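Hi F.,

I've been meaning to write this up properly since the lab meeting, where we talked about keeping a consistent format for the predictions we share between groups. The idea is simple: the sequence comes first, exactly as it goes in, then the structure tokens exactly as they come out, then a line or two of notes. No screenshots and no reformatting. I'm using this chain as the first example so we have something concrete to point to.
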Amino acid sequence: MSTPAPHSTADSVIRFYYRGEIHTVDQAAPTRTILQHLREDLHCTGSKEGCAEGDCGACTVVIGEQGPDGVTLKSVNSCIQFLPTLDGKALYTVEDLKQDSGALHPVQQAMVECHGSQCGFCTPGFVMSLWDLYLKHDGSQAPACGSAGAGACQPLQRKEIDIALSGNLCRCTGYRPIIDAAHRMGELPAVGFDRQALQQALQPLQRDDTFVYKHDGQTFYAPRTLAQLVEVRAANPAARILAGSTDVGLWVTKQMRDLGDIIYLGQVSELNAVAMREGQLEIGAGVTLNDAYAEICKHYPELSEMWQRFASLPIRNAGTLGGNVANGSPIGDSPPWLIALGAQVVLRGPAGQRVMPLEALYLDYMKKDMQADEFVEAVRIPLPHAGQRFRTYKLAKRFDQDISAVCAAFSVTLDGHKISDIRIAFGGMAATPKRAALTEAALRGRAWSESVLENAVALMTDDYKPLSDMRASSEYRMKTSQNLLRRFWLETRVDAPLRSDQVNPFVCA
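Output, unedited:
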């Protein structure tokens, strides 16, 4: 039986802004998805279900949320987002784009003119992803390319379009006409978006206390402060922690698991903060992956490709860095480079904070050094230091939206030609994200040279015993991991030329 949350809100009704008015829900399971509510309860069938796991993008919607700096809007996959997470937010679907005059939105008109839709099943998702991109350039932030008096306007860059559409799959058009539509939408007469009106609409929906939603014996908690979260967690240590739902959502849609009671972190203000503390960058556990990578890339532009390749934009808009760390998957893309940089994880419980090196958190496969009443509060990442050279690499069958076969991260600190320190971490090579302790020891204190490197490479077979699975064989994993260490040396040896992505990193400049 769940324990009532301290300072809980008595009104156990989900409230969100939808189609110009406040929409309330009080008879839905806490794990009912936004897509199910749209299609089955509201009969709003523009958004489609293609995969029910956040891969195809046919269900893409845009969520509006009030933050400390005003309203933010972002595309997410409605098929894996639970309905109670909408409380206090705004929901936009493809049906919302129709203008009062009956005209199509420029995004839709561009898709028509450029023949971007064939069977049409994926089209609503593409349109919403493009609308999200359009909002980033509309007249409410800066003059849009089609707006009156806009003057000179830079057209959308192909890379920005590719990123915006990275979570949308189509089996008909081959993408070229859809990309043409992305360019074309900025040439049409602009349609702005009234963010101030949205902010006013969301204001009455904001809560100060923990939101508690109950249905059929299951309870969904959404605390607003860190203190409330500590109390709720202490009272409900068996409850499932939910952050971005990009993994937990699949437990419901694919595995049909009963999650029991749920504690949602998305509304805890302190967990959504980024700060500098004692020479370290501290990322709150609730900061989305996209926002977290944007901040980290300012200090480590070498992470720019990993930022792009980590799932898709809608997944990065929902998932969190803290969730990726707390999950502890052996094939997670963030833990290897965090470990290589010497990151620490901050745990919080009723007894206060507990800080440890990230690699110490992972004890065995999906087993972590956490008490039942603890949760991840933040991740602390050291800033770059003199002589440090850093890289991370991802090997997968596809460039976008694929799980790693091997994820490698290397950080070496050189004093002239000598290695004063080195940290090597891999994902996909063991039951947990794991450092190569023997390989590091063979390199530390030696010259950063090819001969020393080759002796160390041979020790990787003692550091790791990878498994074979559907993504890669054990032989492939070992050979490519050794080759990635060689690649790291080639790129960071003392006489190595500057790489182009260090000069012009992915959206980090």
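Notes:
The first strand starts at residue 8 and ends at 9.
The chain has three domains: 8-95+198-269, 100-190, 273-502.

If this format works for you, I'll send the rest the same way.

G.
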